[in-house]
Design goal:
With about 140 residues, the chain is mostly helical. It is built from six helices and four strands; from the N terminus they run ββαααααββα. Helices cover about 65% and strands about 5% of the residues.
Length: about 140
Amino acid sequence: KIIGGISTDRYHSLRDIDVGDGELFGRPTNQRTATWLVHIFLPSLLKFVQGTFVLIITFFIVIQTDNTLDLFKDFAAMQVVSELDNVAFYLANHGYFGSALKRDSDISKEIKILDKVPKIFFGMPLRPIVLFSLLLL
């Protein structure tokens, strides 16, 4: 999940803020500004902050751990805390939090977000090319 300072939580949260030009997703229109702020921007911002905290804690775990066993133990504990939102969604999706949240989670699973990735080099996306070139430096 965390490779070279890149967290998928941070990447997906930034991608979700600026996706599409629909009424609900993407940049807000005048009548949907409050809906966009509450349902798109705020959750994406909180997910970005959570991903940033995971990266910072990962840095401190690596710096402060003396032996390998403690390092694995600390990473396992951090991973459990980091995945709590996914566990909560799984439980809601299977009806453990009531039928209303199950219905809402079913609706949210049907929403597809398309990533408009610029493909500039023989049909390959720009982001992996930049990351690979940084690794070669």
